[in-house]
Write a structure and sequence with these properties.
Elements: E1 2-4, E2 11-16, H1 18-27, E3 37-38, E4 43-45, E5 47-56, E6 59-69, E7 86-91, E8 94-99
Parallel strand pairs: 1-6
Antiparallel strand pairs: 2-4, 3-5, 5-6, 7-8
Length: 100
Amino acid sequence: TMDRACNDQGHLYGSVTQQDISAALKEVGFAVSPREVRLPGAIKRVDTFDILVKVDSDLEAHVKIWVAADRNIDDDDHRRDGVRQRRRTHHQGQEKEACS
């Protein structure tokens, strides 16, 4: 799980980079260089992502990362066009209700 600063809609103020993922994998004991992390695109929102780690031409692994808000973004007073819209989110094993 990677905690990041975001707005109330779950959009990150920055992005999660190959260097961030490489550092997180090193913290848990996997020596992965940033160039071995293959991102399909910029990670700029709170969600789960499947990431390809290509260590060699014939050796690769798929890693799932969870990008989570560094604070509670559950905001029942948030309204869009006067209509409350809710979606279910899953964060660290607990379901929460959040407006989108």
